Amino acid sequence: MSKFHVLIPAAGSGSRMGSELPKQYLPLLGKPLIHHAIAMFVQVPRIASVHVVISADDALWDERAVDYGNKFQVHRNGGATRAATVLNGLNAMADEVDSQDWILVHDAARPGLSASLLASLLDSLEHDEVGGLLAIPLADTLKRADPQQRVSNTEPRDGLWQAQTPQMFRYEILQRALQLAGGAPTDEAQAVEALGLKPKLVPGELRNLKITYPQDLRIAAAILLADAKENQAS
User: Fold this and answer.
1) CA gyration radius for the chain?
2) Number of folded domains that form the chain
3) What are the residues whose beta carbons fall under 8 Å from the beta carbon of 21, sequence distance 6 or more?
């Protein structure tokens, strides 16, 4: 029976946050941003292992890391791009996974993934031939800007979805896709699509936002605080 493994690439700098501290280490409710992603996965029994890939020279990890238990591992072989970091992580865990095991690649900067949303992804894709990803249909009107930041035209949004993570594919498929990927695919699904495959879109939620700008931290904090209050009341 195929197992589920999580891979979290965390070798980036998050320059759009305007902070000298790499984004994955920014504080959120008193803990590094990446902690919230890791902690959720290690608590889910269906997840066999959780792997974080950081830069070889990352000195901040040892200062901020905690003990996440025996299903957790860190690999210090991050690459120059997201795709390279994920591929390096796959290679590092090769001896511990089967070629048909599922790999869930998740952003270190998505602290709002819930256990129910993760379960929906696993249940939807466990027997799928290709795999897929969480995503949400676009609701806002899309405008394309010209070089002067004026609207050049309005883009039709029919059939458009905003990709989220986790993105879930078989180890063998994902490794091959990233090995063959030209340029720098912005996510794992794009690399898999280049193989001629069609990943499945699994409905996500707005709460699973990626922290990109400073104001996003406040939104994430509000979501996690609401979760904590709900858990205390139940």
Assistant:
1) 18
2) 1
3) 60
pLDDT tier for residue 233 given thresholds of 50, 70 and 90: confident
- Those residues with Cβ within 8 angstroms of residue 219's Cβ, 6 or more apart along the chain or in another chain: 209
What's this model's pTM, rounded to 2 decimal places?
0.94
The H-or-E segment that residue 75 falls in is: strand 72-75
Q: Which two tokens stand for residue 149?
A: 């930041």
Q: What is the CATH number of the domain that holds 224?
A: 3.90.550.10
Give the C-alpha separation, 48 to 72, whole Å: 9
- Cα–Cα distances in angstroms (integers) from residue 228 to residues 119, 208, 221, in the given order: 19, 16, 11
159 sits in the region (left: phi over 0; alpha: psi -120 to 50; else beta) called: left
What per-residue confidence (pLDDT) applies to 17? Answer: 47
What is the Cα–Cα distance from 189 to 196, expressed in whole angstroms? Answer: 11
Q: Supply the range of the domain harboring residue 90.
A: 4-233
